[in-house]
Write a structure and sequence with these properties.
It is found in: Cell membrane. This is Peptide/nickel transport system permease protein. Belongs to the binding-protein-dependent transport system permease family. The chain is an all-alpha fold and about 325 residues long. The protein has 17 helices and no strands. The protein has helices at about 1-10, 10-30, 35-40, 45-55, 60-75, 85-120, 125-140, 145-160, 175-180, 180-210, 210-220, 225-235, 235-250, 255-260, 265-275, 280-305, 310.
Length: about 325
Amino acid sequence: MLGYIIKRILSLIPVLFVVSIAIFLIIHLTPGDPAAAILGLEASEQQIQELNETMGLNLPIYQQYIHWVSGVLQGDFGDSYFMNEPVTDAIFNHLGPTVSLALLAEIAALILALPIGILAAYRRGSFSDKSLMVISLCGMAIPSFLLGLLLMLAFGVSLQWLPVAGYKPLSAGLWNHLRYLILPAISLGAFQAALVARMTRSSMLEVLDRNYIKTARSKGVKEYKVVIKHAFRNAFLPILTVIGQSFGALVTGAVVVETIFNLPGLGQLIMNSIERRDFAVIQGVVLFVTLIYVFINLIVDLLYGVIDPRVRLGRK
């Protein structure tokens, strides 16, 4: 198992190297002078030159990359020009709302999606199966920002059950924390719930016709044990992949939803940084989010090896 873990971790090094180059080049090879964009139109030539020297933008591009990567390897993502603080501090100050939103959205999606997918597969071809799949298709078709606006109008403005925007930290109480996240979590998790439900149904259908399922039924095993213990357990690997990808998508794709609901998370941080041309923060946030996504996929790969030993042994 240790060899499998080391192998998976080492395989991430070239991925992160290529991603770091892509992030750096996208930021630094965009047209225009970064220092002039940061300071604005009224900046003098001397101010632009001084900022270029301060930020190291007058160095050759490869030296800038080496300096940035060297800092990243030491946990230093640079400093924010506008916020006058290290990028790492800015990231961790905004990380809490994003993680809370992603966790709540993922939990809600799984609570809804897994039973729907299992039920639809068990009753395949029936009216309930078709109805549930139509609902899941609608969940995939409605954009998260549109669903968020509709939920805001219905439950925040008309019924006034939940706040339409803002954020309360966990220190303000669990309910106060959650009530500000319920609407954005639903709007963000609806697509993921639909995706997981459809994958669950597809995986369950492949397993329910297997011989060992028929054997279990012929032995008189109770139906719910056949469905959950035998069928769902063996159908779980592809579902786990989608769950891992969906959680990564929730963390990395919350920009629009956080903006709509005014959540002070990573999405709002990067949007503000783009407007202010705060390149150090943009680089740092994009790289940090990429690291989260890669780490989640690593966890999924390791869980593959735990659930199915054939994966880590290289067998099918």
